[in-house]
Amino acid sequence: MLKAPDHQVAGHQAREGQLGPLVDDSGRFYKPLQNNGRGSKELAFYRSFFSDPRVPHHIRRFFPRFFGTLVVEASDGSGPQSHLVMEDLVSGLDRPSVADIKIGSRTWYPHAKEDYIAKCSKKDRETTSLTLGFRVSGLQIYDEDNEAATGGFWKQSKKQVQGFTAEDVRGTLRRFASSNPSAATAATADEEPDCAFAAVVYGGSGGILAQLLELKAWFEEQTIFHFYSASVLLLRGNGATEAARVKLVDFAHVFEGDGVIDHNFLGGLCSLIRFISEVLCGGSDGRPHPEKSSAAENGGQG
Predict the structure, then answer these.
(1) SS3 of residue 63 by DSSP
(2) Pick the CATH number of 97-301 from 3.50.50.60, 3.30.420.40, 3.30.470.160, 3.40.190.170
């Protein structure tokens, strides 16, 4: 039986009669094919990406597995509609913490219509996209200590997230690796996020930082694709007992690279790496130690 995802933090949601993605009990995610050519473009990307011999096998693990398309009843009650069928990225994670981070200082794509460029540029200016090269689009962080008050997750509204400053972004990345993510809010103003899970979530050979550095190494070389308005998902299970994961999603605006490095995406990815390095190397206070942050960004050598 298909249902609305419980842990979707950004994008169109299949609630209150709206068209949005669905999930089943077998670990699959059903995304409606978007109109205006976006759906067909994303479908074409998935079909080509996993069969393209130029894409290294170790890079493919950062992208959701793709199972084709299927016509199912749309969530808005409009009848049968074609959906992309892919891996449900939070399936199997116990009380997952999720951060959706849109990468790139420029989210509009070449040859887009003027009104679309104006709309995207306005949002890029009003969020941290233009200044940081990325912005937080949505998040939820499991909060065991305040389960009764928060419903089990620390979240921010869409409006709050859109108003994030660089310091808010830094604080959010600290909360993502903390056992007390609701600290330093109105109810707990005397506390600070403890970054108790930073070494496990962000550090180590299999942590988020190492995964992002692996992606960075590919983006420093790959000239196959240019990704506009795509997101990096950071995921972890309860208490960081399950391995943290990095995934790329949202490929309606992927274009051929034509032999040119995707500097827009690469720049945003490098900026995100710097922020996470600061959290990891700053310890419990989250304040960066420049010499340690530099070593972390270069794979721990320094």
Answers:
(1) coil
(2) 3.30.470.160
Which pLDDT score is estimated for 298?
52
Residue 119, token pair as written in the block: 């709309």
Domain ranges of the chain: 22-87, 97-301
How many angstroms separate the CA atoms of 135 and 100, rounded? 9
Q: What is the DSSP string of 94-151?
A: SS-EEEEEEE-S--S-TT--HHHHHHHHHHHHHSSHHHHSEEEEEEEEE-GGGHHHHT
CA distances 69 to 34, 44, 77, 165, 187, Å, are 13, 11, 19, 39, 46
Average pLDDT over residues 265-280: 97
Residue 139 one-letter amino acid = L
Q: Is the dihedral of CA 47, 51, 53, 57 positive or negative?
A: positive
77 vs 16: CA distance, rounded Å: 10
* CA gap 296, 278 in Å, rounded: 9
Q: What's the pTM value of the predicted model, to 2 decimals?
A: 0.88
Average pLDDT over residues 164-190: 83
Burial grade of 176 (CB within 10 A; 0-12, 13-18, 19 or more): buried
Q: Quickly list DSSP for 23-39.
A: E-TTSEEEEEPPTTTHH
Tell me how long the chain is.
302
- Name the strand (E) or helix (H) holding 237: none
